[in-house]
Amino acid sequence: MGPLTGVVVLDLGQYLAGPFGAMLLGDLGAEVIKVEPVRGDGMRMAGMPFVGCQRGKLDIAVDVKDPEGLEVVLRLAELADVVHHNMTKGTAARLGIDFESLRARNPELVHCNTYAYGAEGPLSDFGGLDPLYQAACGLEYEAGPVAEGNPPLYLRFGMTDTANAMVSAVGVLAALYHQRRTGEGQDLWTSLLNGAAVFGSDVFLVEGDPGPVRPALDRNQTGVSPCYRLYETQQGWIQVAAFGPGQWSQLCRLVGRPDLERFDTVETRISGRSEIEPDLERAFLTRTAAAWQSDLAGLGVATEVSIDTNDGEAVLHDADNERLGLVVEHPHQLLGKVRQFGTLIDFSETPTGPYGPPPLVGEHTRQIMERIGYSGTEIDALLAQGIVYEPGEDYRWTQ
């Protein structure tokens, strides 16, 4: 059983930022009940990303805009410890499932709403998508790097979505601790903007002036210094991070350029990049990335081969990743055997999940409704009216 065993999370979110946060809580042992529109989460129409943020959840499909559907969700809120979602500002209130409405049914409830911009200010009513907040926080500008003459670069991995989700999970854990200690629920929020800010954690001002300037990415987007960058090899690319004591000397000697050891500080290596890097680039082209990695690692120099993931397949079939529990498999009713990343934290006494595949739309509707007091006759009536949904011959989703 995971450390959050016994905690019930109501996931009212759609797409990535909201459901990913709820899934992380589920990976830690919480029971997550996904409340999905009868038309399905919009992410289901986007292909495989849905699978990556929904595993292990129970699923009930409800038309919350109908008064009887709203009552289903309010009853579920009475059962829950946490409600988590990513609706735009004001949406939950219009639907009658905002914090105040839910707290009236469950005073101890922890309620987390993740936004795009935030809860206050002129942009607070806007929805948002990941690249907008990568742009707003300068991530794309620096990844370019635009200062070196390149265009901005969009990092396509949902950076602000996933960072926002992780921050929201931390917030929920803190609020749960307070709830268990005092019996008091509360409302909390984070945002895509907040998630983007995580990647600026090395930026600060001192008495209003910028702190030490962080090294700039080079125009070829290979790195920030001769000892902290990518090098092309005879076959493939290798990432070098020779920052530890003596590692620069070991690197220089292995590539046959002991004369470069005179650049013996971070500052001199950065200022001397134009002199150092052409020599190292020529040296690395003489052997394969795998050969360099083997020899450098043997000398204690931190390196890794930059791999082609082949759409993730290489990572998910990596023996080391499997051994660490970072890769898991589970059966899915429509997709067959699903292989994806596993839980991200290991505990000695409370092992974590994952806890099953992503659900079908409304897969557990009847089971969940019986749990909150609906009779079979009542459930059948709501199904017939289209107020709730469970999978049948009309099931139209691919996942």
Brief synopsis:
The chain has 399 residues and is of the alpha/beta class. Helices cover 34% and strands 17% of the residues.
User: Strands of the largest sheet, in order across it?
Assistant: 6-5-4-1-2-3-15
Major beta sheet, specifics? 7 strands, mixed
Helix content: 25-40%
Mean pLDDT figure: 93
Query: What is the global morphology?
Result: elongated
Provide structural commentary.
This protein is of the alpha/beta class. 34% of the residues lie in helices and 17% in strands. It is built from 16 helices and 15 strands. Strands 6-5-4-1-2-3-15 form a seven-stranded mixed β-sheet, sandwiched between helices. It has a four-stranded antiparallel β-sheet with strand order 9-10-11-12. Strand 9 and strand 10 form a beta hairpin. Helix 1 crosses helix 7.
Tell me the layout of helices and strands.
Layout: E1 8-11, H1 17-27, E2 31-36, E3 58-62, H2 67-79, E4 82-85, H3 91-95, H4 99-103, E5 110-115, H5 130-136, H6 139-143, H7 159-182, E6 186-191, H8 192-197, E7 205-206, E8 209-210, E9 223-225, E10 228-232, E11 237-241, H9 247-254, H10 266-271, H11 273-284, H12 289-298, E12 303-306, H13 313-316, H14 319-323, E13 327-332, E14 336-341, H15 365-371, H16 376-384, E15 388-389
Parallel strand pairs: 1-2, 1-4, 2-3, 4-5, 5-6
Antiparallel strand pairs: 3-15, 7-8, 9-10, 10-11, 11-12, 13-14
Helix pairs in contact: 1-7
